[in-house]
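Intended use. Records like the one below are meant for learning the mapping from a protein sequence to its folded structure. Do not use them to infer anything beyond what is encoded.
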Amino acid sequence: MTKTTKQQKKQRSSVSRRSVIKGLAVGAGAAAFGFPNFVRAQKNGEVYVRTSGGSYQEALRNGTWSAFEDKTGIRVVPVPANTSKMLAMVQAGEGGLDLIAGNEPATLTLQKAGALEKLDKSRFEITDLADVAPVTDYYIGYSFFAEVLVYNKETFPDRHPGSWKDFWDVETFPGPRSLQDAKAIAPNLEFALLADGVSRENLYPIDVDRAFRKLSEIKPHIVKFFDTGALGASMIAEKTVVLTSLWANRAQVLMDKGAPLGIEWNEAMRMLEASAILKSAKNRDNAYRLLDFELSPEPQANTLPKVLLSPTNRKAFNYIDEKVAANLPTSPSNRKIGFDNSGAWWVDNRAAVLERWQEFLLG
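Structure written out for the chain above:
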């Protein structure tokens, strides 16, 4: 009996050694064949990131997340969530989300509710924050999109509207038009003021009364105030309208498919997408590492132009083809003729503007 027990122990010990050796061999083989993440991810954990899905998430995966995982062994897990859900997570102390991305008004709403971590800027090792704008105590700009004047080239073959004042000039540039409804993001009060002679530098605080008076002038020529980007795009693509405000990336997609459209970058309104860390983040260290990586020049250049968004790191343009850069909101040529939307003003005034908007539509 004693002899059998010793043999069994010896066999178990031999099996155990072989298992360890086999495990090491599998790990080495995985690394050799390009699968280092399997081993490293178990060690370094995950980071949960808010995403809106679709082509944007695909661009993030291909241009940023995969490279980050290869570099660090940290697995990036996308999580769909709106502002209300993110706020509820923090209030409940839930850790299902670490790093978020959202438009500036949504980010400011979370900041005001105390849901965001105050950023430790000493933790940025890859990205020089001096190259990035804007940088605040609670969030950092990740990308820009822009709302622009879009026109039909067949309707305006020789001379097209070159400003929002021209958009309002229905005699020189006749034809059906559309503008944005409050349900999409916000009504185009800024464009109305520009059409009325207000300079880009003096748009904020918005003179709401003056903006609505100017909107009343163009209202009879508006076929519809579009409430989604998809509707705005289809109206200009199908020639239901020949002039519209529209997000530049949506217009560019139509143009790439052959639609006879043009983008006027003069007086384009840039809108910020920001990144921040939730206060309830359970993977805080990993969130900092991903935030540092995603703001650096090459990941921004490899990701954002794929969905026609503009990097916030100015050095990213060193890695972007000039022809591609020309269609991005913060390219050197477009930056100087556009302006930045004030998310802070809209957070403070949105409710009052929405009330006025409903009165305007019914009036």
